[in-house]
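Regression test attached.
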Amino acid sequence: MYSKHLLKKMYTDMLVIRYAEEILVEPIIKGEVKCPVHLYSGQEAVAVGIGAVLARKDYVFGNHRSHGHYLVHGGTLKGLIAEIYGKETGCAKGRGGSMHVCAPEAGFLGAAPIVAGTIALATGAALAASIRKDGRIAVSFFGDGATGEGTFYESLNFASLRKLPIIFVCENNLYATHMPLQDCRAANNIVATGKPFCIPSFREDGNDVLKVYDLAAKAAALCRAGKGPVLLEFMTYRMRGHVGPDDNVQGCRTDIRPAREVAIWKGKDPIEALEKYLLRRKIYRLIELKQTRSSVARTVKEAMEFASDSKYPAPEELGYYVSKK
Amino acid sequence: MSAKNRILQYSLAINEALHQMMSRDKSVFLIGQGVKSPWYVGNTAKGLLEKYGTSRVIDTPVSENGITGAAVGAALAGMRPVVVHPRMDFMLYALDPIINEAANWHYMTGGKSTVPLVVWGIINRGGEQAAQHSQAIHGIFAHIPGLKVVMPSTPYDAKGLMAAAIQDENPVVFIDDRWLYRTEGHVPTELYTVPIGKGVIRKKGTDITIVAISYMAPEALKAAQELELAGISAEVLDLRSAKPLDQELIIRSVSKTKRLVIADVGWKTGGLSAEVAALVAEKIGTDLRKPLQRVALPDVPAPSSKTLEAVYYPRSKEIVKAVKKILS
């Protein structure tokens, strides 16, 4: 059974991500946000379900679509929005933007948009943990598109050879930018790629946070018991575009995903599904649910104001942080 | 022989730096292809596996991209990895973790994270090994903000720069050359570092400056000795680091001699010799008495056949020729 505390935390975390993403939509359309933003709306259950089983000491690496991973693993809302706006108060001081959110102080070692690039990095963080025998585990978040890169397979092999404590988390949202999965892979079988490397591999509904949590707990336990690595494939869907809000959501780019498909997945909204569960199980009354929503909305709005009030980096500081002195 | 005058081979000087750094700091580990095989890394890894075991001396599958990426990730997680590429050519598979990730990470995180990583690439020229076993690609890495590139030419510098590279908080590309592995020289037994970004005057002179790096540094010295017999006093600078470049040392020497030959182990176009030439043009410009000369690889892939190989790699005689062209 899930504790009330856990359920409420997971619900709030998912809401924070959703509201943070959706508050960016208008500024993106207006051109106030110019930095490329890959919204995570629709995939919240994966980040939150995994994050709920991790300890603060554990290591997490993200990708181009990592606002959610960052927020769940210790990144601040203010730091996120300010970073997207290119402000000095951003989590990367305005040097990284949306695709390089980081909170290394909390174990979220960073994100990067070179597809699959961070899979090897996360493997290295797990290697560090295994050399030190410090009980940490590492998590690598990547999309279905990343399974087209060689470094994914190199990392699976090396991690398995050394029995590294790493969870490879594929968030299969069915599209690699514009390319549907069936145009990228000969078979819809990402979960099977762990098998030749002798890696325990599981596929699960990525829009059900409780199922994600259960599987994450199992994977983390395997890793902590020295039985890693583990490969998890979560079937999910991004409600927004590859980059920015569009591709058949706002209606201005209707060429990428079939409207019917988008509608079907909208019906599987992971937050709505969890809300129904919470009400059914009487964890929340409707009024409490609404209160939580407005409280999160307020916090996100405050972060927006914080970002807006923050200063840009000073031009004379262009050359800062190239090398550590 | 007293420890003060101890003579050591270049490759064993690297080995000693690895031993001393691994013994001093538990976060240092060696990873890469063939670290347990003298066939790959010569005697640079001698005794490490026996002493530190397979958790810190990690022989790997042929997966340069994945393994180098893992080294970057381990560095981000608090370790100080040395990832070795026994043939630098294969390191091209690892350009993403080196350039996109390691070099940029400190900047991309607004200074929050550092990547204390050594990427060790070995140049394996000659031996009829052709285009994919012989390349010197330091110029590629010197081009990238966030990377440091060191290329020791003496056993003393090999040990001191490896130790400095491991201690540095930033990614350092350490490039050595198999042609230097048997070079002998004075190497102190204790741990010391050679500063990254500082060149050194190998021979003082007044008529002309020869700026060299890596294998071309001893060739430049040989050339200077030959020139001395012809009454030409050449000053030989060994850059030791391709990045950061010791600009001050170059400018000071060239301002004095007003004549310059640059000798690089890489190709001519877009490389280190072009960078040094541009620096001198910017800072000294028309003060040179004669146009500078560059001794570098021709813009040709490395050949296999010995007749072609013989004319491919410049040596001291090409440096002498370049000096004489300026002084004629």
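Expected vs. actual: identical. The interface with chain A takes residues 29, 55-56, 58, 60-61, 63, 65-79, 81, 96-97, 100-101, 105-114, 145-146, 148, 169-170 of chain B (CB under 8 Å).
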